[in-house]
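Notebook, p. 212. Picked up where the previous page left off. The plan for this session was modest: take the two constructs that came back from the sequencing core last week, fold each one, and keep the raw output in the notebook itself so nobody has to go hunting through shared drives later. Recording the first one now, exactly as returned: residue sequence, then the structure token string.
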Amino acid sequence: DCQLGMGDISTALKTYQKSFKISQEIRQKVGDTSFSLRNMVICLNGIADCQKDLGNISAALESYEKNLKICQLMIDTVGNNRQTLHDLLISTQRVADCQKELGNFLTALSGYQQTLYLNQQIEQQYGTNQLTQRQQYVSRSHIADCLKFTGNISEALKNYEQSLIFAHQLQQQSGYDFTTLRDISVTIGKIANCYQENGDYQAALTGYKQSLAICEKLQQECGSTPQILRDIYINTVKIADCNKVLGNIPETIYEYEKSL
């Protein structure tokens, strides 16, 4: 974990692989217990994370899929509890993330829909909290992305709007929070993208302006980080694009010059 945190990914991968071998030996000695199986889950997650960070998405996918099978075995062995359901959810999401990066959007969509179902199970059994609400936001956002990539703009829009509701709920609970506010800004921008693709440039323009206002607020509070500056640039260009289509030429020139 420390090696990974320090950015030494290749060394961390080798260490996780050694750790996984040890966890396999433990499993052979003690059998399928919560302890032995969860150790394997932790090690495999580390291996897959390193493979993904190194750009080897196919290898990461294979490791995450192995991990998913162990998570399911944990549930079959020790039953449903908050930890086993959470592990299953995270592994399912990471498999879907890899499928999404590989361009397998329908497969990824199915995985993200499964994470939504698992999160709802957790909420039903253990109640709603900020963690489950954030998962609702994450799952809905990924589902919307996949729907958009497969050309289902109307359903994508619905899911983006649902994810925005959860982002606002999180903001109300946590107050000023960089991650949550940026989530709101990004989601509003994605909603505006859907309007733009549907030809509703006035609605898209309104959305991009709202997204930009949040970005500028984050800039005032957190400084001009590369991420914030890029968000401001993207929204400014999008505002100019919409103004151009709407025939607002002076505003278009102003916004394009501003984006420079």
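Okay, moving on. Second construct, recorded in the same format:
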Amino acid sequence: ENGYILSTAGAGIAEGVSSSLNPAMNRLKNSYIQFSLNNWLDNIQGSQTAFYWGDEIPQSISIQSWNAKNISLWGENPASEPLGTFGVHYISASYSISHNLKTPYRFGMCIQTHYSHLFSESMSSISFNIGALFPINSFIQAGVVLKNIGYESTNNIKADLPTEVGLGLALTLPLNISLLTDVIHISEHGMDTRIGFKTHWRLINLHAGTSINNKRNANALGFSFNYRSWSISYGIYNHENSNLGMPQFFDIRRYI
């Protein structure tokens, strides 16, 4: 993930600019390299390095990691002091490719693998995402995505991953503003509705979004600054449980 995705609360299935939202991507004007520094809930630290390239056939490769140290360990009956501390380590890698298949539409596929370690247990997984973009007219585009087709393995025991099915619309409004609306069904969490907007101005752009679920609501905002071949983005995510902190992502992008 990166600051732009965080700042729109994960909306953008139909926008066609990020393979992590939908592997079906629009044609790239310029290739770029991006590095992200991420701070998630409860001060979990992470980073992502991504490379996007290709014009007719956009492709991307991404490596992401998360690390948490000194997490307090409590017993069944928590006392005034924790029993100790522990750490969690997570790393993932993905490759995405998109093509029009000689149609007016865009189709994409992503393969990704994950590895995490907690206490003495290790978990690994491999999965596929597939998606498509359907231009409706000059200012409306629809998108669909199916995520987590695969399995995870913990101590050599395989289990299916929670699947996600999402539908989205991207609308181009006057004043160079995009409105993004998504409806996503997550097999373990039910329906999630996301609404976001972003500007497409020359130097400074604004992003905002909201995510609504029957278990939790969240709001996000951010900005990006463009100068020549560089772009800097920042996103912050505000959710209902403020005790866990506010996730913040910071990106640096270099167009090549």
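Notes on construct two before I forget. Residues 3-7 form the longest helix (5 residues).
Flagging for discussion at group meeting.
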